[in-house]
Design brief:
- By secondary structure, the chain is of the alpha+beta class.
- The chain has three domains: 110 residues, Alpha-Beta Plaits (2-Layer Sandwich), CATH 3.30.70; 97 residues, Chitinase A, domain 3 (Roll); 153 residues, Trigger factor, domain 2 (Orthogonal Bundle).
- It contains twelve helices and 13 strands.
- Helix 3 packs across helix 6 and helix 9 packs across helix 11.
Amino acid sequence: MAVQVETLEKLERRITLTLAAETINGEVETRLKRLSRTVKADGFRPGKVPMSVVTQRYGYSVQYEVVNDRVGQAFNEAATEARLRVAGQPRITQKDDAPEGQLAFDATFEVYPEVKLGDLSTAEIERVTTEVTEEAIDRTVEILRKQRRTFGLRPAVEGAVETDRVTIDFEGKIDGEPFDGGKAEAFQFIIGEGQMLEQFDQAVRGMKVGESKTFPLQFPDDYQGKDVAGKEADFMVTVKKIEAQNLPTVDEAFAKSLGIKEGTVEGLRADVKKNLEREVKFRVLARNKGNVMEALSKAAELEIPNALVASETDRLIEGARADLKQRGVKDAETAPIPAEIFKPQAERRVRLGLVVAELVRTNKLQAQPEQLQKHIEEMSQSYEKPAEVMRWYLGDRQRMSEVEAVVIENNVTDYVLATAKVVDKVLPFDDLMTAS
């Protein structure tokens, strides 16, 4: 086998491979003989089919397989000998000008780029911290109370107020004509909890059982119902039932109902604080990690292999189709999704992946077994049965690979923050929890 390596544009390379036709033909003959032992044909006993029949029926496909195998093997050997880090799959084309008795092929491919990392000590990166306040614990306890609230009928003489659950009939019209979704009977919602548009919510306040009212409502321009977005409707509402909420008292019985072992209010608040601190930790880490990755991407110089971008684009498209299918979209698997939509995102991911991989390699930031164990333990603590969650992760190689990727990113984040110019910022709890 003779090997030639050419450098084309940027990351593109080409290897010319020549194989002896005699070697290919010998392998084809060997495989056809092996195939003849099991092939079946009308009029012949198994294993007795003439080679001429076997060759006529399977010769082309066997030769195609042999050529593919031999060229693939030759390419891998040549790339290893030349110490090339191949990105993606090569494009193989057969040459017409091969020497007599030879088969010649061009393998065109891309290689991984050289990643030049800038001086990270000059990079300025924001690092946020957030404290779990007593106010945050109070609000969480209130949410737990609402999750366990009950409702009781309000006296007929009293009007509906905030936090009441009302049952209504309503019908809306635009220019005197009904519209889809504009009518309902025995419809329930809780006043003041954002379940209805503000104008609708305000119109029902103060109404009593049996009372009817007509009022105008302006749909927002960005309303999810495109047919009515930006239009004004007239609604007729009749109140059928009003129920006042009853919130449970925060006491020992309430704490026990939530599974608090100590059965005390102090134990409940301690448990809430612990859960909030765990959530804050992951959110803060994600935010700081995002800042680090953005800084890393800006600090690096490299060419991006088109083959890797194409592969990542395909993966994103498949993910989008899977999401459409989960939402019940018909024929989601064949939905036409232009690759251009995802190309910028794919380029960013590939670029960052190459930069992170280089940083991990040069600074030995690979995930260690004890780090993997600790990360899984932390994640499992938010579940009712942590031991089962840990076994679920540890028992699957794919899930462990995902955990390993997260731990490596955490290692990179810690390394960069220890190297760069860090600007510390205290982020209010509410800002952290509402951030997208």
